[in-house]
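Standup notes, protein team

Yesterday: finished cleaning the Neovison vison set.
Today: Protein unc-93 homolog B1 structure.
Blockers: none.

Input for Protein unc-93 homolog B1:
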Amino acid sequence: RLGVPDGPGAPLDELVGAYPNYNEEEEECRYYRRKRLGVLKNVLAASAGGMLTYGVYLGLLQMQLILHYDETYREVKYGNMGLPDIDSKMLMGINVTPIAALLYTPVLIRFFGTKWMMFLAVGIYALFVSTNYWERYYTLVPSAVALGMAIVPLWASMGNYITRMAQKYYEYSHYKERDEQGPQQRPPRGSHAPYLLVFQTIFYSFFHLSFACAQLPMIYFLNHYLYDLNHTLYNVQSCGTDSQGILLGFNKTVLRTLPRSGNLIVVESVLMAVAFLAMLLVLGLCGAAYRPTEEIDLRSVGWGNIFQLPFKHVRDFRLRHLVPFFIYSGFEVLFACTGLGLGYGVCSVGLERLAYLLVAYSLGASASSVLGLLGLWLPRQVPLVGGAGVHLLLTLGLFFWAPAPRVLRHIWILYVAAVLWGVGSALNKTGLSTLLGILYEDKERQDFIFTIYHWWQAVAIFVVYLGSSLPMKAKLAVLLLTLVAATTSYLWMEQKLRRGAVPRQPRIPRPQHKVRGYRYLEEENSDESDAEGVHGG
């Protein structure tokens, strides 16, 4: 017989009472530890998803443009279909469409939510990959336009997501303080900054690896079909600072033999599988950035206000001072790929070594993202200004260097320049994203701020696209002037903040809780409808 008391006199506590060995404080500690591990899982999943997405996109675009550049490949496979015209319109769709992103990105992020906006944008990248199975005008150009529309929403929602994860990690690490202060009390300003710095370092360590991932199709597939530099660079007369446009005099045939269609389909299928894996990572492993009630509040400020608020943030002098840095951030990534990679690298040591130069840039940037952690001990200006200083010295050096075509003697200089440019890129990206998350820690305005940041980056990339035919000296001069203006403007902003200047931020309207489809419990009218209230009265 079990020793369970029975009968009317049995004490109720012995039947339904608390577990005798239950320790409330220990269980609470375990609960919040699980929450913190969940946040780390979200950061790693978002970082890996972004790396795979961008790596697949860059790798496919690079392979596609090299194949379509070859005259023999175009004539044999596509005849008179006009592939160069299709490629130019595709690049136009990718580079021009983001200019309109400021009009719709905040509305899309608030409508779908941060996580679902990330998932939708990664899906559009996967759509772009899938259209390369059947390369026609009506597949490539519309998918490129859709991709251009998704660029700013993807990276704005990613930046917002990482910042929110840092704030949530702080809440779960200091839950006892929150219980003492009350759930409505906001944490001290800047309290989440150390976690934000670590999470942005993790994110950009993964992100910069995407440039190395993008070179895998080149290294393991396309490089076996390429002519060597003596053929492709036969008519190239000048490189580096003396060059004009992009690879003037480069041979029109770069493929020794044409790759079989079956092999191309295998490569594209692998890229499609990786894009699909990135979608699954974001869908299955990334948790929500906001609680459901917070999502409702963010939408309930009114769609007209959501549309206007990015423009109203121009009043804030901090954003105005950071705009040159936003523009430079777009310039320097494109220069690493096109200026340094093509104008100095391919032009002098051949197309077959482009992949290895970009891998050097990628690994240098990924490893150097850890230097962003210096902000935990040094003033926040140090990483950002340090990255700008590295780029300034490199740009001045490149301004006076014109490597000779078809000469491999100086290839080590190219690798050193690529790694050092990656160091500057890592400090730039990590420093800017961390700075924005610290200056604008109100969850009601973070998506607007990251939208403005990535929109200016897209504008800079559009300007580079328009000026691709300029001489290298002009490109370097623009890069140098933008860098000096960005650093000066940023240090001036920090000086203003030290003097106590108060930024003018637009007011975020209070959420209008009486929105059709949502019902809040309030004391005065409970959850009754208007009609019930009238009849009851």
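Follow-up from PR in the comments: Confidence is low (pLDDT under 50) at residues 518-537.
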